[in-house]
Specification:
297 residues; mainly beta; 4 helices; 8-stranded mixed beta sheet; 36% strand; 5-stranded antiparallel beta sheet; 11% helix
């Protein structure tokens, strides 16, 4: 049995983070479960916090490194955090101040956080205004309207989550948060066909997915643009979501925006290695993020 599987969850996390830094994942010995192909990957879930599990994977064909969270949305002490909406007269309509993912995790007290929706312009400077692309609803307030060609991740007032087309939001009540993304890559366990480019173009990817009627949330970050991880296609992203246990999922903003930050030992640690402006380990200041936190003492 591999040494990683003999470790307890606490020891595994300690070794993963002690062998990592804010910009370089070096936890291969203890942190990654390995597989030859995406379809062969078997996640080894370990508890990060109650109701929040973490797994990390390394695929050899193609070369991919990724990190994923599984969140129990039925846990009453689990809370989803998104960027709080600014006062309506403080910024132009449809914009929001930029934050890095690690900065978001620290500001909102998250156990874990990932980048979310697409935006412009691209920069690593925090607090600059970012123009949102597609829907963004924060605590019931619509900050940016839907964009018909894209999909989104929705959280309802009852705590459930869903992956929907942004055009389907009209007339739906009880939405607490809605985060725009790009395209759905998994629908009820099946991979939708989006044309040949969905199987060819490789990028760093961020994705979100649900299962169990919206009771379980998955967040996935796949590294790219470096020798150890070449980036995933849309199809491979959908396959990974499926082997993680998801039923329906979509691609969020990716490329240099893809980042996953975790809180451990009172510190915020960036576990993947984003590549912004051609610089490995440089974190981009993004528009919106999704975070998970616990509300119990």
């Amino acid at each position: 049995m591999p040494a990683a599987r003999l470790l307890t969850g606490a020891v595994w996390l300690l070794l993963l983070f002690s062998s990592s830094c804010a910009s370089a994942p070096r936890g291969e010995t203890f942190g990654f479960s390995r597989a030859r192909l995406v379809d062969d990957f078997v996640p080894q879930w370990r508890e990060l916090k109650p109701g929040i599990d973490l797994t990390a994977g390394k695929i050899s064909r193609p070369r991919l490194e990724f990190w994923a969270l599984r969140v129990d949305l039925t846990d009453k002490n689990i809370e989803i955090a998104v960027n709080e909406a600014e006062p309506e007269d403080s910024l132009p309509a449809g914009t929001i101040p930029a934050l890095t993912v690690s900065g978001f995790a620290a500001r909102y007290g998250c156990a874990a956080a990932m980048n979310a929706g697409p935006f412009s312009p691209v920069s690593d400077k925090a607090d600059e205004p970012r123009l949102l692309t597609g829907i963004f609803v924060s605590n019931g307030r619509t900050v940016s309207p839907p964009l018909s060609r894209y999909d989104c991740l929705v959280f309802y007032d009852d705590g459930r989550a869903a992956v929907l087309s942004q055009t389907d939001l009209a007339g739906i009540g009880g939405i607490r948060h809605a985060l725009g993304g790009f395209f759905t890559v998994l629908v009820e366990g099946n991979l939708p066909e989006r044309g040949p480019q969905s199987r060819k173009i490789r990028h760093p990817r961020s994705a979100a997915a649900v299962s169990g009627g919206g009771a379980v949330l998955y967040l996935l970050v796949i590294d790219g643009r470096r020798p150890g991880s070449v980036g995933a296609t849309e199809v491979e992203t959908g396959l990974l979501l499926r082997v993680l246990g998801a039923e329906s999922g979509l691609i969020m903003d990716g490329g240099g925006s893809s980042a996953l930050a975790l809180e451990y030992g009172g510190k915020i640690i960036l576990v993947n290695k984003p590549v912004h402006g051609g610089i490995a380990g440089r974190e981009r200041a993004v528009a919106t993020c999704i975070g998970v936190r616990r509300t119990d003492p």
